[in-house]
């Protein structure tokens, strides 16, 4: 039921924006009570958080595949960052997050990937660091965690406010990560 609720909520949020989304509409669509939704998600913001984390998981699957498709550390990070930027730019839910409530710059969901993004950053850091340590076990785990977090934060920053083409940003972030991890 949780996945069904998240699927329907994503459709409603993309269609109506955060301000136009109401838990009662979701409950009617699912044929359940609002209380059942509140028990599961603790409210509209909790539901939005669950959606963002689910979306993050999907993106991280794609990013991990991109990392695995390359032999070298630099090339792996270029592919991972480029994949993250491309995947998020094509995602209707993320577009809804970035444009605000209804395309008019509201901030109903934007904090979930900015000021309240700790769960997203942690999930991305942990998945990237875990992959890197499996692939390059000689790297220092503490340094890998730092590099993965910095890369995640830089990537999110570019997604929220893109200043350069994705390929350029991917090269820059990969260079920072590689230099940090391979320094003498």
Q: What layout of secondary structure does this protein have?
A:
Elements: H1 2-20, H2 23-30, H3 34-41, H4 44-68, H5 73-89, H6 92-99, H7 118-135, H8 141-160, H9 166-182
Helix pairs in contact: 1-2, 1-6, 2-3, 4-5, 4-7, 5-8, 5-9, 7-8, 8-9
Q: How would you explain this protein's 3D organization?
A:
- The chain is an all-alpha fold and 184 residues long.
- It has a single domain (52-182), classed as Tetracycline Repressor, domain 2, CATH 1.10.357.
- The protein is 76% helix and 0% strand.
- The protein contains 9 helices and no strands.
- The protein has helices at residues 2-20, 23-30, 34-41, 44-68, 73-89, 92-99, 118-135, 141-160, 166-182.
- Helix 4 (44-68) packs antiparallel against helix 5 (73-89), helix 4 (44-68) runs parallel beside helix 7 and helix 8 (141-160) packs antiparallel against helix 9.
- It is elongated, with a radius of gyration of 18 Å.
- Mean pLDDT is 85; it is low at 101-106.
